[in-house]
């Protein structure tokens, strides 16, 4: 087991080397359109919708003017948000379920990863419909986003975005941009410590290397203990430790050419641990408690556990990218983005019993991907602004999973099998996935007049996918190498009307098809045969209308929209009762519809208030052969399937909302001070695709507060703050899943943490 108290070499080296301060505004921030506003008064989470964009980022003709939440890097720091899971506390409608980077699902407005986690089975082989981009490079899996540190800004786009961002963006996009190297020397270091052995150290060094070259180095070390205690040995579980580095080189030839080279590396260890939440009596018997008594399992309900073995996950990942941009004399712009990434996860999985049923099982993953994006932007300022280009994606994913049963009589007693059937049994599963896709696109905006724009876009994604699945030792199976080819169209049509200088509205319609998949982790269903290994593309149609108003000299900003999304050939999990296997499949259709609104009010330079909320009614319209929940399956004479038509879709809380307030003031001695608070709330949701009442995740709200001060030195600026996350120590669950015999286990969220942060920059 990795050492929770280890002192990271990166943190020590950084603290020893940096005796210099850092400027309050980096060069990348200065280039960011939100930076001038943030310098005067930090603008909180903002939805951009409907208005013609005036900055270099938002003028991208690929991007239709629909709902966008933008968070600047300064706001991430102010709110102490550094992980993808915490991002959902700032963006309503975003939902992230994660136990570790190897197992993460994201949805926006209820649309996203459809696995459902009915039994904890990971959705390997099925892409997410929420795409993540970092500096224009596509990440094939959400867990490749290791940290939200050193960001210039991040945009969260809702609705089908396949025309702009490719096939696997039918549920939305997380578009992140890191800070560029600067030609003005700067450096910074910040160190945070808090309860539960929380620590985070980040150091940045940036500056010129020559007349045309600049470099930037970002080092991050972080870690915390978890909220689960193993009563057997006192270990604190559910925590993680991570060390990472990102280096960049920037070449500039005036305004004509820019080349940005990046390389990053991250090494993380975590010990995700499920706790027993509840057991259930069905037909007069609590089978879980009965089997536990038979094998001598000490039943302990959360938040603590009594287990003889612990789960550990080790992940190494990184990549390189090259971003080249040309500004031609005739006004054309050309951009090329090339990237390569790798992801290697090596977990050691334990059961959640005090006796040994399974022993040192695992699910190793080795993922490599490479992308090439080439885009041409027309000169702006004419009647029509447009862009066209070509994207290529390659991926190879290997998995090796094994479930090893203990060398005792207990596995057969627990499973109810004949003596000797499961003893020392090692069920091995091998999976291979190869993916190649090529997608040309064109999208542009017709400026009908000074007040009306129409944006039209088309994309065709040609996807070739192949792979295989092999299982040994129990129900042996070999699929052979399977191949599937799909042509996936996407399209968008948007109209924008600026009714007045401070009032605009838009209407948008988009269509997209997500890539298909292969069952390379669970195998085929016995009843359906080899056909069940292949997952068809998922089809999504989205519509949205919105309005934006800037009042009181832009001190009051109001935004609202109505949306509806229809998802067909829903990619999710099925269940075959013949061989009791969970597998990936296509299932019917569902609708996501609702409304969202955002308010930002800055009545003075000192005060700012922000609030945003999403109401999301998401329900199945065609899902009459769904897997039944345990409360039905374990009852006498259960049906082969259940009808979920009209029932709510999992991972889709009906209401999510957040609010924040910040007050800043300066004192006569030159100190700049602040105090702030934020609160996020989400209503209950089903945690699994079968709408099991057992895995209904309760609603919860989280509050965070911070206060601090900063001052100038001869060369730079220092800062100090105190903060508390989950201030009211709310007990909440990241995920609930059904396990054996009607038992439910869950993954606890972070406990209340009080900490301090010290920083220095020049």
UniProtKB/TrEMBL annotation:
Topology relative to the lipid bilayer, per the entry, is:
Multi-pass membrane protein
**What's a GO cellular component annotated to this UniProt protein?**
cell outer membrane
Which domain of life does the UniProt lineage start with? Bacteria
By its UniProt entry, which InterPro entries does this protein fall under? Answer: Beta-barrel_TonB, Beta-barrel_TonB_sf, Plug_dom, TonB-dep_rcpt-like
What subcellular locations does the record give? Cell outer membrane
Q: Where is the TonB-dependent receptor plug domain?
A: 61-173
Presence of keyword Transport: yes
Q: Which family does it belong to?
A: Belongs to the TonB-dependent receptor family.
This chain belongs to the protein called TonB-dependent receptor plug domain-containing protein
Please report the organism this UniProt entry assigns to the protein: Duganella guangzhouensis
What are the leading ranks of the lineage? Bacteria, Pseudomonadati, Pseudomonadota, Betaproteobacteria, Burkholderiales
């Amino acid at each position: 087991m990795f050492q929770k108290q280890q002192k990271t070499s990166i943190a020590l080296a950084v603290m020893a080397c940096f005796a210099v301060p850092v400027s309050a505004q980096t060069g990348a921030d200065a280039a960011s359109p939100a930076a001038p506003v943030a310098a005067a008064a930090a603008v909180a989470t903002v939805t951009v919708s409907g208005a013609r964009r005036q900055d270099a980022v938002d003028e991208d003709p690929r991007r239709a003017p629909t709902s966008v939440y933008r968070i600047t890097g300064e706001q991430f720091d102010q709110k102490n948000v550094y992980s993808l899971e915490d991002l959902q506390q700032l963006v309503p409608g975003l939902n992230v379920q994660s136990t570790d980077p190897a197992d993460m699902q994201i949805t926006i407005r209820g649309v996203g990863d459809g696995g459902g986690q009915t039994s904890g089975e990971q959705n390997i082989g099925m892409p997410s419909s929420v795409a993540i981009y970092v500096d224009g490079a596509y990440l094939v899996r959400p867990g490749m986003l290791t940290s939200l540190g050193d960001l210039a800004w991040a945009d969260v786009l809702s609705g089908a975005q396949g025309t702009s961002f490719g096939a696997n963006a039918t549920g939305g996009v997380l578009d992140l941009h890191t800070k560029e190297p600067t030609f003005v020397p700067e450096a910074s270091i910040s160190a945070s410590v808090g309860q539960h052995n929380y620590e985070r150290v980040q150091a940045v060094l940036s500056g010129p290397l020559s007349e045309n070259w600049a470099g930037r180095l970002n080092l991050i070390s972080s870690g915390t203990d978890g909220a689960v205690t193993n009563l057997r040995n006192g270990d604190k579980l559910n925590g993680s430790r991570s060390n990472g580095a990102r280096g960049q080189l920037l070449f500039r030839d005036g305004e004509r050419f820019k080349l940005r080279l990046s390389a990053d590396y991250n090494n993380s260890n975590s010990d995700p641990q499920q706790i027993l939440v509840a057991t259930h009596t069905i037909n007069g018997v609590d089978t879980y408690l009965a089997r536990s008594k038979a094998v001598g399992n000490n039943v302990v309900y959360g938040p603590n556990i009594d287990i003889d073995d612990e789960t550990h996950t080790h992940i190494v990942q990184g990549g390189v990218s090259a971003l080249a941009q040309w500004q031609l004399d005739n006004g054309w712009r050309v951009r090329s983005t090339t990237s390569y990434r790798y992801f290697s996860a090596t977990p050691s999985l334990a059961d959640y019993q005090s006796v040994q049923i399974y022993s040192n099982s695992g699910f190793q993953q080795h993922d490599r991907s490479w992308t090439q994006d080439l885009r041409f932007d027309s000169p702006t300022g004419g009647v029509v602004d447009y862009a066209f280009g070509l994207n290529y994606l390659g991926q190879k994913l290997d998995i090796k999973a094994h479930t090893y049963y203990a060398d005792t009589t207990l596995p057969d007693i627990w499973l109810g099998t004949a003596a000797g059937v499961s003893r020392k049994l090692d069920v091995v599963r091998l999976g291979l996935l190869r993916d190649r896709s090529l997608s040309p696109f064109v999208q542009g905006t017709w400026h009908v007049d000074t007040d009306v724009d129409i944006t039209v876009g088309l994309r065709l994604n040609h996807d070739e996918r192949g792979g295989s699945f092999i299982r040994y030792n129990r129900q042996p199976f070999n699929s052979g190498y399977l191949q599937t080819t799909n042509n996936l169209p996407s399209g968008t049509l948007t109209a924008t009307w600026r009714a007045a200088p401070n009032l605009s509205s838009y209407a948008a319609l988009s269509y997209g098809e997500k890539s298909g998949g292969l069952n390379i982790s669970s195998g085929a269903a016995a009843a359906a045969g080899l056909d069940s290994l292949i997952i068809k593309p998922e089809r999504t149609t989205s519509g949205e209308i919105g309005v934006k108003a800037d009042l009181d000299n832009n001190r009051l900003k109001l935004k609202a929209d109505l949306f509806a999304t229809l998802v067909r050939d829903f990619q999710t999990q099925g269940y075959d009762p013949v061989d009791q296997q969970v597998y990936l499949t296509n299932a019917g259709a569902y609708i996501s519809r609702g409304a969202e609104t955002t308010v930002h009010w800055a009545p003075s330079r000192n005060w700012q208030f922000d609030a945003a909320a999403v109401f999301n009614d998401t329900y199945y319209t065609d899902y009459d052969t769904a897997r039944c929940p345990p409360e039905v399956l374990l009852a006498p004479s259960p049906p082969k399937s259940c009808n979920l038509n009209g029932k709510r879709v999992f991972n889709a809380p009906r209401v999510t909302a957040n609010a924040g307030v910040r007050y800043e003031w300066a004192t006569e001695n030159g100190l700049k001070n602040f105090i702030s608070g934020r609160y996020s709330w989400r209503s209950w949701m089903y945690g699994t695709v079968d709408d099991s009442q057992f895995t209904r995740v309760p609603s919860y709200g989280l509050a965070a507060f911070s206060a601090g001060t900063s001052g100038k030195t001869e060369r730079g600026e220092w800062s100090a703050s105190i903060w508390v996350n989950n201030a009211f120590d709310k007990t909440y669950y990241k995920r609930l899943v059904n396990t054996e015999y009607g038992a439910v286990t869950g993954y606890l969220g972070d406990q209340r943490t009080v900490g301090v942060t010290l920083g220095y920059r020049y």
